[in-house]
Amino acid sequence: MLTSSVENYLKAIYYLQHESGWANTSAIADHMTVANPSVTMMLKRMAAMQPPLISYTPYEGARLTPAGEKQALEVIRVHRLMETFLVRVLGYTWDEVHADADRLEHASSPLLIERISALLGDPVRDPHGEDIPDRNGLLPNRSELPLTNLIAGQSGRITRVAADRPEILRYLGEIGLNLDVTVEVLEKAPFEGPLTVHSSESGSDHALGREITNRIFIDAAH
Amino acid sequence: MLTSSVENYLKAIYYLQHESGWANTSAIADHMTVANPSVTMMLKRMAAMQPPLISYTPYEGARLTPAGEKQALEVIRVHRLMETFLVRVLGYTWDEVHADADRLEHASSPLLIERISALLGDPVRDPHGEDIPDRNGLLPNRSELPLTNLIAGQSGRITRVAADRPEILRYLGEIGLNLDVTVEVLEKAPFEGPLTVHSSESGSDHALGREITNRIFIDAAH
DNA sequence: AACCTTAATTAGGATATGCTAATATTATAC
DNA sequence: GTATAATATTAGCATATCCTAATTAAGGTT
């Protein structure tokens, strides 16, 4: 069985690899709030495991092997199931779930995971709209685009909010930007400036910087 | 914050102290399936903590300080809440809960604990009939006696089953010896021999050794 | 092509937890 | 009251994970 630490590295590498195709030492260190040498050590260990979880090229970085990706998807499945459970069963808000899910994900037996999934009706989306891998690690293909990509006058349904900081999630919830809400872009300031959007839920308008609108995703199926 | 390891030692010391008034090195080592020297080391560390969790006398053993007892009761509270949750919400049987609760108890935030307790209606008894300490670590006083102490012809309600091994719990469940079931002692063999008991739940009779009947408790309020 | 910057690695150490083998202490038995 | 058995501790070592400081490698500049 993998240690929690290894599971956390797997998650980090998975995310970085899916953002930029490659996970280098500093990026992992940043993502995990850990010093660089700790990452180097761990990458070597993970590459030396039987079977190897990553392939590692010094001075370049790491990529998940198929075995590593399978494990990473399992951890992500549990994390997202836990977040869903915390919101749906225990009444957490979407900004409260992350830290607790992070701990629970390392303390879950296969039985617990199955029971939680069944209790929730085998959910496919967590409280932030992230896909929940199924038992086999399969993710649905979705078509969505960042809110930033809409032009003024366009509107769409929020399918995912990939904000990492709880404060941002709380703020978005407060101004009515929740999952499945329809938003309309009223104005898009030039020079990479903010977007002014209207929430159908709250009925109010708000200006949002692009660091945020890049992380709010809209159904592209229209 | 305490590590899981320290939390486990606290639990072990608490149990041993309540069984025999004192927790010595070997007993702790046995209870935790760990080598003796590991225990000695840990006891020293726990006695040196600020505030000390135990008082430790070399070659004698350990006792919880008030601070240690408070922490131990908190861990036990979480453990028993988790067991209750696993049974009531996730449909575990009483023999399946222990290992999972053992891991979850170390991964629970204060918020999680409060929410679970509230969801369950602040339960006071876990699936084995063990008392759940309240938020302040207080335990109700109960009057109960081991099934062994009944004489032939007496009957009573099962209030607690302190069997540690899951196989025993499973067996007891199968023959209808569950919490709150009324049992009658039909026969009590001499020379510390087995008791033959009748379960009102299953309607069947079974002979049980005293290692088991010592761990089944009956309401003494009658 | 030598130089500099940035990023990554190695060197050396710390902490928490476990182990086995060797030693010391306490308790028991004559 | 000494010898022995049972129990506990110390010594020495291992692993997983983290750290800081020093060194090395890679990539871009002149």
How would you describe what is shown here?
2 copies of one chain form a homodimer. Chain A is of the alpha+beta class and 222 residues long. Chain A has helices at residues 4-20, 25-32, 36-48, 66-88, 97-104, 110-119, 166-174, 210-213, and strands spanning 54-57, 61-64, 144-146, 155-161, 182-188, 195-199, 205-208, 216-219. In chain A, strands 3-8-4-5-6-7 form a 6-stranded antiparallel beta sheet. A two-stranded antiparallel sheet of chain A has the order 1-2. In chain A, strand 5 and strand 6 form a beta hairpin. In chain A, helix 1 (4-20) packs across helix 4 and helix 2 (25-32) crosses helix 3. Chain A starts with a helix and ends with a strand. Chains A and B meet through helix 5 and helix 6 of A and helix 5 and helix 6 of B. Chain A binds a DNA duplex (30 and 30 nucleotides) through helix 3.
Would you give the CATH topology of the largest domain in chain A?
Answer: SH3 type barrels
The CATH superfamily name of the largest domain in chain A is: Ferrous iron transport protein A (FeoA)
Overall, the morphology of chain A is: globular
Classify the helix fraction of chain A into a percent range: 40-55%
Alpha plus pi helix count of chain A: 8
Mean pLDDT of chain A: 95
Number of spatially distinct domains of chain A: 3
Radius of gyration of chain A: 19 Å
Q: State the CATH architecture of the largest domain in chain A.
A: Roll
Order of helices and strands of chain A: HHHEEHHHEEHEEEHE
Strand order of the largest sheet of chain A: 3-8-4-5-6-7
